[in-house]
């Protein structure tokens, strides 16, 4: 009987539904190295175990041939790059592609690091104020391989720009994974958050601490689509839309529209709208909302 780690088997359908191009290496679903996903306390739940977060790497190379197992080691769960001539590349022509390599934990990529990043920040959905400044844990050591999904993005890690399409793929893939597990964007960390020994990821996007830009883009990608009949941020700044008419402001607040706007947009309408045009209910609402923004 072939056993399969269940936690990542949702990915083919989820990536397809998100229009993310992907490939599945033969055997990725049943790959195992005697490892199980373990929770933050180090307890495993067999093939039903789940990862706690996602760790992002670069390969430190211009090209890479992904495999399920390399000399008995599972390097990563996912690879992302530009597919050409049977390999993934960091540059040039080809198809930006997500490659699924292992449903079970890697036994190499994360390596040793700091447990507190996992227990105090990742599983708490808190921002880790990285990069890491402390030496790896010792006595006992802590290895992150069974705790994190490990993704390798093909790139030399020299601070040059990551191909824009590949950047988008890693953001969209992270958003798909995070939404599936109910994670915030803070569950996605850099290898250099886990350990002082590493610098990845390091692209021109957000360099030298690229993960912060990555996390920001993941957060945006996870936001629900805006209703077509709701005004955009830009529309809020024009005179073509009367924010106060037909109870638009009440509906907008109830629908959470202002989560992606800033105080300036509100104040623009605050100072350009005469208070005597508003009934008492709207006036009270604006006062409360203004206090909320402050």
Q: Could you give a short description of this structure?
A:
By secondary structure, the protein is α/β, with parallel strands linked by helices. The protein has 9 helices and 8 strands.
SS-derived structural category:
alpha/beta
CATH fold naming of the largest domain: Lysozyme-like
Mean pLDDT: 84
Q: Give the helix level as a range of percent.
A: 25-40%
Q: What is the global morphology? A: globular
Report the top-level CATH class of the largest domain.
Alpha Beta
Tell me the series of helices and strands, N- to C-terminal.
HEEEEEEHEHEHHHHHH
Gap between N and C termini: 60 Å
- Rg over CA atoms: 23 Å
Please give the largest β-sheet.
8 strands, mixed
Outline the low-pLDDT stretches: 243-247, 259-264, 270-278
Query: CATH H-level name of the largest domain... which superfamily?
Result: Peptidoglycan recognition protein-like
Strand content: 5-15%
The counted number of beta strands is 8
Provide the domain count.
2
CATH architecture of the largest domain: 3-Layer(aba) Sandwich
